[in-house]
């Protein structure tokens, strides 16, 4: 997930789960170890998800022009975050120096730091400067109070909606509740233009996107997946209400059956083809869906709003990507300088203007150039500040696999909601006490 390319209870939840995760093979590297490890200059690599905008390569090209003896090279990994994570872990467990810098999903920091796969980043002085960043994003780069990854882009789920179809249906404002969204869908479906338009889409395929979707639905209903004490909290009416929303959306045809196989990029293409009224998606879609090159049939005919919930705006998921330095890489000093270059406010502004990816520098959300191109930035900033996270566990792979398996069985009709939540409660209980 952007996944390409994104806090609420995040700090407490992350610390609780990482403390309970266990089995991390020892404590993370000390500050002195990290500082001493950041030596060596020369060529570096950046392992990352696919650069669909092409702008990352432009930024790397500019670095390379200014640093002829410290050339950076992008290594593109698969689209699916689960596959990206697996390749990074494989590289780390073999102690390979093939990857210098890792572009981590925000919830991977604890796992990679606890296993000593990445080194601590020094702050201040010759280190990185986190002071200009949104506080919620800084938390995503920390493990046990120390910084192991530098936030480069943030993210929060938004509701993309077709302004032209809502206007024709007489709907003046975007929905703030699930029921308002269904009512607006019914009005649009009654129009000739809306006959073949699907109502709503969020990721419910068996990918990392399903973990995001589950967290958003349950948090929006007032529940949690794991509580501040690190224990699963799925045996609640609120958790059931959140999962019921997803299950019934598929069952009742509010979401197309194709939703069970579509990933984030598949959903983007569905929206840009003009086949979708409401789409829960990350901000990166904004620029792509507005392209005037013929790739989007909805350019200029959509807007974004906070995601809805049962009684008002929902609890969006905190996403984003952070840069970390592999513990096994050569030329760590060059890697640190490259991270500082990419995290600089001017670079973040240029990248955001080119890609619509959300920056982590707080001042950019009120920058005139930024708000002129992206009027939704104040909404996005509020969403990021209020966002809630997926469980950030040391054994994140096991946790997310358990969530995906149980919830997919429910949304695909294999099990009912209650059985899925009971199964997931048990699995997470075992994972968080190991």
CATH architecture annotation name of the domain at 1-156 and 317-393: 3-Layer(aba) Sandwich
Shape: globular
Instruction: Write the H/E string, N to C.
Output: HHEHEHEHHEEEEHHEHHHEHEEHHEHHHH
CATH-assigned homologous superfamily of the domain at 1-156 and 317-393: Periplasmic binding protein-like II
The radius of gyration over CA amounts to 21 Å
Largest sheet: 6 strands, mixed
Total number of strands: 12
**Annotation field: number of helices:** 18
pLDDT averaged residue by residue = 90
* CATH fold-level name of the domain at 1-156 and 317-393: D-Maltodextrin-Binding Protein, domain 2
Distance between the amino and carboxyl termini:
28 Å
Describe the structure.
The protein is of the alpha/beta class and 434 residues long. The protein has a domain at 1-156 and 317-393: Periplasmic binding protein-like II (D-Maltodextrin-Binding Protein, domain 2). It has helices spanning 10-21, 31-37, 55-66, 81-93, 109-114, 135-140, 163-168, 178-189, 208-220, 237-251, 264-272, 285-289, 332-343, 345-355, 368-373, 377-386, 396-411, 417-431, and strands at residues 44-48, 72-76, 101-105, 142-143, 146-147, 150-156, 158-162, 198-201, 276-281, 302-305, 318-325, 358-359. Helix 3 links the parallel strand 1 and strand 2 (72-76). It is globular, with a radius of gyration of 21 Å. The protein starts with 9 loop residues before the first helix and ends with a helix. Pfam families: SBP_bac_8.
């Amino acid at each position: 997930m952007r996944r390409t390319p994104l806090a609420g209870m995040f700090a407490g939840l992350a610390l609780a789960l990482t403390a309970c995760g266990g089995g991390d093979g020892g404590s993370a590297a000390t500050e002195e170890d990290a500082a001493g490890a950041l030596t060596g200059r020369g060529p570096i690599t950046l392992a990352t998800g696919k650069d669909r905008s092409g702008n990352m390569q432009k930024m790397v090209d500019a670095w390379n022009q200014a640093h002829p003896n410290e050339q950076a090279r992008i290594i593109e990994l698969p689209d699916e975050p689960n596959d990206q994570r697996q390749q990074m872990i494989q590289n780390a467990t073999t102690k390979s120096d093939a990857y210098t810098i890792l572009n981590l999903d925000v919830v991977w920091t604890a796992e990679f730091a606890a296993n000593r796969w990445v080194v601590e980043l020094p702050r201040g002085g010759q280190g990185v400067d986190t002071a200009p960043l949104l506080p919620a994003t800084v938390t995503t780069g920390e493990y046990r109070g120390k910084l192991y990854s530098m936030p480069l882009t943030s993210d929060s789920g938004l509701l993309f909606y077709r302004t032209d179809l809502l206007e024709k249906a007489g709907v003046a404002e975007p929905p703030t509740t699930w029921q308002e969204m269904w009512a607006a869908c019914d009005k649009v479906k009654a129009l000739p233009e809306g006959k073949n338009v699907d109502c709503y889409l969020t990721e419910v395929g068996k990918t990392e996107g399903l973990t995001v979707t589950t967290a958003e639905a349950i948090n929006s209903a007032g529940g949690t997946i794991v509580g501040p004490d690190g224990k699963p909290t799925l045996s609640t009416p609120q958790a059931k209400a959140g999962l019921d929303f997803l299950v019934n959306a598929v069952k009742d045809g509010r979401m197309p059956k194709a939703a069970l196989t579509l990933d984030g990029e598949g959903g983007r293409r569905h929206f840009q083809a003009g086949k979708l009224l409401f789409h829960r998606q990350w901000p990166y879609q904004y620029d792509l869906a507005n392209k005037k090159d013929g790739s989007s049939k909805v350019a200029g005919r959509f807007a974004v709003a906070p995601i809805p919930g049962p009684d008002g705006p929902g609890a969006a998921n905190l996403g984003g990507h952070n840069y970390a330095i592999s513990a096994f890489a050569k030329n760590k000093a060059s890697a640190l300088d490259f991270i500082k270059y990419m995290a600089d406010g001017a670079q973040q502004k240029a990248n955001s203007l080119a890609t619509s990816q959300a920056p982590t520098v707080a001042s950019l959300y009120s920058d005139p150039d930024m708000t002129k191109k992206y009027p939704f930035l104040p909404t996005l900033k509020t969403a990021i500040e209020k966002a809630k996270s997926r469980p950030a566990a040391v054994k994140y792979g096991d946790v997310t696999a358990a969530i995906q398996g149980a919830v997919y069985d429910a949304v695909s009709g294999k099990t009912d909601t209650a059985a899925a939540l009971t199964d997931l409660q048990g699995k997470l209980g075992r994972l968080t006490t190991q």
